[in-house]
Amino acid sequence: MDWSNNVIDDILRATQAKKALDKLMLPFWNWSQRNSMYPLHFGLACCALEMAASSGPRWDAERLGIIYRSSPRQCDVLLLNGWISKKVRPALRRLYEQMPAPKWVIAMGECSISGGPWYDCYNVVQGADTFLPVDIYIPGCPPRPEALIDGFLKLQQKIKAEAKGPFLED
Ligand code: SF4
Asked: What is the Cα–Cα distance from 78 to 168, expressed in whole angstroms?
């Protein structure tokens, strides 16, 4: 199958069809990206309980296309939901790097935004944006499930505005 994929790829490149297809499919690609977000199901601290509540039957985040997955290879959103110790920081960075692009980061709660109650603690990272490109900040201690869902809706708007990522791999 590899040889046929390569031949098709060569033809698409040679005829500029790849660029045309990208342009044509971008609105559809972007629509499907923002309506099917896959956050990593990874709990850091107490905010993770609100994350769990948001996907329960009362708030039902799945109805908006927010579906938690357990492998970073299947995810496009890294949801940080608690304080980040210096020991866990390299593991989080690694999880982020294992996610395929395009990908986004949400900082949920005061701890992941700025260290929260541990703002001057020797072993707590003073904000996720010191080592990851955070796209959306959701303040609160903890933010309620409604606030988390609102953050995802804001991310949808951002994905729509950015329209990044080709439909075909380069
Ligand atoms: S922001 Fe508050 S609820 Fe969330 S992890 Fe920090 S202390 Fe816990």
From this structure: 23
| CA–CA distances in Å: residue 2 to residues 6, 7, 19, 21, 100 | 6, 9, 22, 21, 21
Peptide bond into 102 cis (omega under 30): yes
Contact 46 CB / ligand 1 (< 6 Å):
yes
Which residues, in sequence order, are CB contacts of 13 under 8 Å at separation 6+? none
Phi and psi angles of residue 3, each rounded to the nearest 5 degrees, phi first: -65, -40
Is this structure's pTM higher than 0.70? yes
List, for residues 27-83, the tens digit of each pLDDT value: 888 999 999 999 999 999 999 999 999 999 999 999 999 999 999 999 999 999 999
Q: Which atom of ligand 1 is nearest to the CA of 109?
A: 1
